[in-house]
Amino acid sequence: MRHQTIIDIYDYWNRLRGSGDAPLKSQIEPSSLGHILPSLFILEKNDGLGAVTFRLAGTRICDLFGRDLRGESFAELFGDGHALDIEATLRGAMEHVIPTLLNATGYSTAGHQASFEIIVMPLRSEDGRPERLLGAIAPSVAASWLEIVPLDFLALDRSRLLRDRPAQDRKESWPYAAVSERPHGVGAFIGRVMSSLFSGPAPH
User: Fold this and answer.
1) How far apart are the first and last CA of the chain?
2) Rounded to two decimals, what is the model's pTM?
3) From the CA atom positions of the chain, what is the Rg in Å?
4) What number of other Cβ atoms are within 10 A of residue 98's Cβ?
5) Are 104 and 154 in contact (CB under 8 A)?
6) Which end of the chain is more exposed for a tag (fewer CB within 10 A), N or C?
7) pLDDT of residue 182
């Protein structure tokens, strides 16, 4: 993690969960999030669409894409054949209760591009089910055109799990988006959905 917004919301989520693996959604207090609130979103499973969709999206995120994202599929923000991989990553983060960090490049129809950090972190309902994701999107470097020229799509560059689960060691595996490198714009998607056994301390 490099962007302060991503660090701040991850620290907030960690404080709320304490010794558990995820906080309750009712513990989220918008008034405690201050200046980072416009960069935050909440995702939920939408059985009608068969996708993980935006329940809420901050004003800064909606400005990035030039529209209200509420009800839209998060995975469909990604082009170049990444939607299925992103959907698998979101469902894995939710169902297995592991926060995930994504690095992506955003492209506009005017030819602009910018790098972003995206984090998604599971939230539990009152009955204990991990049914939502709290997340944030932040540009790696400030650019004058952002929030003025809408992004057309995102391309996944890298994803990794934040594996510092305090409650127990993880023994199961689940599919998640493979690492891909895109040094010169949108290339062919490198790697496929893969499984990994999760153990050891979180990467920093």
Assistant:
1) 7
2) 0.79
3) 16
4) 24
5) yes
6) C
7) 37
- Number of Cβ within 10 Å of residue 71's Cβ equals 12
Residue 179, token pair as written in the block: 């690492």
Give per-residue pLDDT as tens, 103-149: 999 999 899 999 999 999 999 999 999 999 999 999 988 888 987 89
| Amino acid identity at 197 | L
Helix (H, G, I), strand (E, B) or coil at 116: strand
Strand partners, 150: none
Contact 67, 142 (CB under 8 A): no
Give yes or no for a contact between 93 and 122, defined as CB atoms under 8 angstroms apart. yes
* Selection from 107, 182, 194, 180 nearest residue 143 by Cα: 107
Determine if residue 131 is left, alpha or beta; phi over 0 gives left, psi from -120 to 50 gives alpha, anything else beta: alpha
Residue 135: burial class (beta carbons within 10 Å; 0-12, 13-18, 19+)? buried
The closest alpha carbon to 38, from 71, 62, 12, belongs to 62
Residue environment code for 136-148, b if the CB has 16+ CB neighbours within 10 A, otherwise e? bbbbeeeeeebbe
